[in-house]
Amino acid sequence: MARSVHQILGLLGTKDPAEVLVYPLVPASPPPPPPAPVSTAAAARAAAWVDVWGADFGRLTASVTLAEKDALVAAGAREQPER
């Protein structure tokens, strides 16, 4: 279940979404291919990180889902292409 903007802001210790930066936790460029074959389960776990974003306020960071990131941005948070 996605957290509300109010809940995420509470975790970060702010009431103003404009003070929050959101950014993808996975780098924009794809990582180099692994040297050995990768199991299907490992590939699925790695692919799941694409939809995980970071939300920063000062020295505090929370991981948020894509839906939570979209809600934060709609409330006024600043989206960054990378950290």
Q: Could you describe the 3D structure shown?
A:
It contains three helices and four strands, in the order αβαββαβ. By secondary structure, it is α+β, with helices and mostly antiparallel strands. It has a four-stranded mixed sheet with strand order 3-2-1-4, with helices on one face. A hairpin with a 2-residue loop joins strand 2 and strand 3. The radius of gyration is 15 Å and the shape is elongated. The relative contact order is 0.30.
Blueprint of the fold:
Elements: H1 5-12, E1 21-24, H2 40-48, E2 52-57, E3 60-65, H3 66-75, E4 78-79
Concise description?
The protein is an alpha+beta fold and about 80 residues long. It contains 3 helices and 4 strands; from the N terminus they run H-E-H-E-E-H-E.
Main beta-sheet strand count, sense and barrel state: 4 strands, mixed
Structural class: alpha+beta
Gyration radius over CA = 15 Å
Shape: elongated
- Estimate what percentage of residues fall within beta strands: 15-25%
Strand order of the largest sheet: 3-2-1-4
Helix content: 25-40%
> How many strands appear in the DSSP assignment?
4
- The arrangement of helices and strands along the chain is HEHEEHE
Number of DSSP helices? 3
Span between termini:
26 Å
